[in-house]
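User: Can you fold this complex?
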Amino acid sequence: MLLQMNSITKSYGSVTANSGVHFTLRKGEIHALVGENGAGKTTLMRILYGMESPTSGEIKLEGKTVSFASPTDAIQNKIGMVHQHFMLFPSFTIAENIVIGREPSKAIGFNRKAAAAEAERLGKQYGMPVDPWQKIGECSLGVQQRVEILKVLHQGAEIIILDEPTGVLTPLEVKELLVAIKALARQGKSFILISHKLQEVMEVADRITVLRDGKVTGTVDAADTDAEHLSRLMVGRDLIHITRNDTVPGEPVLEVSNVSIRGDKTKPLLDDVSLRVNEGEIVGIAGISGNGQSELLQAISGLMKLDGGAVKLRGTDVTGAPVQTIRDRGLAHIPEDRYQWGVAKDATVTENGLMGHAGKHQKYGILRGSSIRGMVAEWVHRFGIKTGSLATKAQYLSGGNLQKLIVARELAQNTPFLIAAEPTRGVDVGAMEIIHGELLKKREERGAILLVSSELTEILKLSDRILVMFEGRIVGELAANAATEEQISLLMAGGKAVG
Amino acid sequence: MEQLFDVSLFASTLRMVTPILLAALGGAICARVGLFNVGLEGLVLIGAFSAIVGNHFTGNIFAAVLFAIVCSLLFSILFGYMSIHLKANVIVVGIALNFLALGLTTFSLRAIFDVKGAYDNKDMVGLPKWDIPVIKDIPWLGDVLSGHSPLVYLSMLLVILLQWFLFKTVTGFRLLAAGENPTAAKSLGIHVSRIQYGAVLICGVFCGLAGAQLSLGNVTMFTEGMTSGRGFIALVATMLGQSNPIGVAASSLLFGFMDALSIRLQGFAMPTHFTMMLPYIVTIAAMLFFKDKGYIQEARKSNESSR
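Assistant: Here's the predicted assembly.
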């Protein structure tokens, strides 16, 4: 056994993040670690990587007991970690990002040529080719992920921890990554894969350990299990299968006609986009991120100026109107990037929940604390948001829990129209089930929803109609019950629809 | 016009540019590790005053410059301790140090020399003037480049040295990394705060030299608040040059030239207070024209990649 973690317990005050966790890793194995947000996966890996020290328990590496005081110790013991939020330097080149910390040098000079050669060699050896002189800031997220893995390999890692590696990648990039991981495992590298995407886990992992509330609820061979069994272990109960009742779309709520945004590049950001969302209908927009979806949402919600075209909300022209006016007219918005648009990191859970609701909870301009706390406490309960208290700062919540808070806040606006951009990015299956259920409930209550997601399964599951965006244009419209994943993928890549 | 733009104007530009350039280089290295050092003004002032004190007590010009360096260094340690160790807001610390320096030098001027406003002593020896062989015999160019204090030449050397250090050495590379993404640098086992202290100390040395050039090179005296905003101009030069030593040198040259020009114009029956505004007007104009767009884009990119 390459690695053994025995009875690891970690408590922060009265909160126990890990309790008696056993975890083992064989050489050349891909071992997935799955569990809901806050189940203790990341804590366990931070302990292994020397970023936290366990309250009790021991770590054995090739039979020898080890203890790491810092990531430097872990790196020296050939353990590498690819963090969920990339640890890269945008203005540096790919080669520089790979060799940093172990730079090839001539006397005290940094030998950049040797660094580039080394980056190229690593890329070839492990089947992940990169252009060593390209700047990281100009690379796609898929390439950035590749650089992160090459960096860890350059450090000499034999055990590689991947924390939610596919969260920000496009479906094609995910496939490439999984292939690369499998190839590396065949060359003798061992992987610990943190994920809550069960499909991926089933596809790539040899063994799977499930954590729930800091305890191991099962370690199983991937061959002996299925996604259903795993989600039962994760959530602790059977998942309710969501059923979609047929609804008849009503009056148009959102009408976007011929919207264009030129942008400062040669290609327009949005090119003559027209679409309509009706009452009681979910319209899904599929596409590889960066093909105009963000701009479209910003144009609709009044965050970006149009160069042409018009946006109508419930029959009123709101083109170029201030955001407040548009929201008052009946728009709520679950933004795609929760940290940039969704929350104020330094504000509390209550304060973040209050955003956009302040008008309802005031008297003569003074906020009424108790009614606000009541409202937010109800959301915390209903969506199962894991937070220390209502006064906890938003930055201390895990990404998934923060997402639940934003979804709860925007749903509570109870507006006729809702933009849901990546509504379940980074949330676990249990929470995804709740969010999907709420979105469908809103649809049945005759709400209109514009859904943007990079997860095709999500689009297919929820939408009535599917629009595909490519390079700022809508390149196809499909009825959800007739669409297949292959059809959409082809359109997303700029191909023509077949059949 | 010919009278205005003559040899001595360019010669004095080089003299005037040196304190700004040295301070700006110090600011640049601080900016590169993510500390925006507003305290340059105070650091230079301390350097200028302590150079005079050193000169007064030792009578040795070398010891005087050394004393200026040591005093600025101590002051910069204070900046480092508060902003790195105690994690205080760098802007607030910088401003506080500026006022501390102004008060401290004015008070010490009274306490040590028993004078008010300015200290001037005929016996005091300023920095020597070096004639550069060969170059001094070239017409025009010789008059501009030759016959300056050693610190003027040192500052030019430091530009090249710093450029090489930042972009060609391993240590420089790690320094840039620590400034660009401290979290990522820490995750690689790079000692970010140690690097930050190093940068602050280098900045202290540079500002000490800048002060010495101001009080012993350009003139041989000390007046209260004699930096008169040069530290802030240096800060603008840092930003305008995008913390690139060569770029910083170019923008410092622009400001030094305006400084020299403003003094020159006083000899042309222009009101003194009007000409004194010149460097600052150019500073504002420069901020408007060279809006640092590249910087904003970099910031946006780094935001995206850390999502």
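Residues 251-493 of chain A form a domain with the Rossmann fold fold (CATH 3.40.50.300). Chain A has two domains: 3-235, 251-493.
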